[in-house]
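User: Quick sanity check before I run a bigger batch. Here is a single chain. Can you write out its predicted 3D structure?
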Amino acid sequence: MKRNFIVITSLLILLSTVSCIKKNKYAVIVSANMEWNSLKKFYPDEKYKKSPWGEYFYKKIHKKDVLFFHEGWGKVSASGATQYVIDTYKPEILINLGTCGGFEGEISRFDIILANKTVIYDIVEAMGDSKEAIGDYTTPIDLSWLGKDLPYKVRETLIVSADKDLRTDEIESLKKEYGAVAGDWETGAIAYTAQRNRTKILILRGVTDLVSSQKGEAYGNFDLFKQRTDTVMTNLLNELPAWIDFIENSGK
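Assistant: Done. Predicted structure follows.
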């Protein structure tokens, strides 16, 4: 009897947990801690909960329950947490909001990039061809479902990703090799994981700072990066309702 009671109790707890999980059409995923801190300033009064990866909460936007989820910084957290969000909440559309560094002369501060392709470039192959390995993790992003006449001006282009900040001595080669204008830490892993799960992904990243072959304007100036992150995330979160409304009205 005692064993049966324990089993029944465990099943009830499991069913209760599963019933509390909302399956949402939209999941907004945010990577870096600084980006999430900016989001919490924008949404200070939400009921934040904890997951195995980071905090999350639900918010209604245009009568839609939207999941906001903090994944963590870098490729490992980005990939693992994106898979967790897909498996747990089964969103139809993932929206990644965040920051990136821009290449000086190719893009302007606070421009918003809509990623149509991601390249994970920090793969170094000693026994074979690095280009082949990088190609395996290069992810074209299908945006055909998004429709035309977007609600805001964006730069539709690729983003290069690596588990490191953009290095000044790599800027020219990244421009030449990939036609890149900006880079970040996580979008390559997020897009790759979404594609493997056949989940629609919308990546919007704002340029916080510019990097050239000589210098990075935020390097050694963390306060500047912090201020710019607040600005970028505020802009993206202000624009989010219009993006969701646009998707809903386009029937996608």
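The helical segments are 2-20, 33-42, 74-89, 130-136, 171-178, 187-196, 222-250.

User: Great, the batch can go ahead then.
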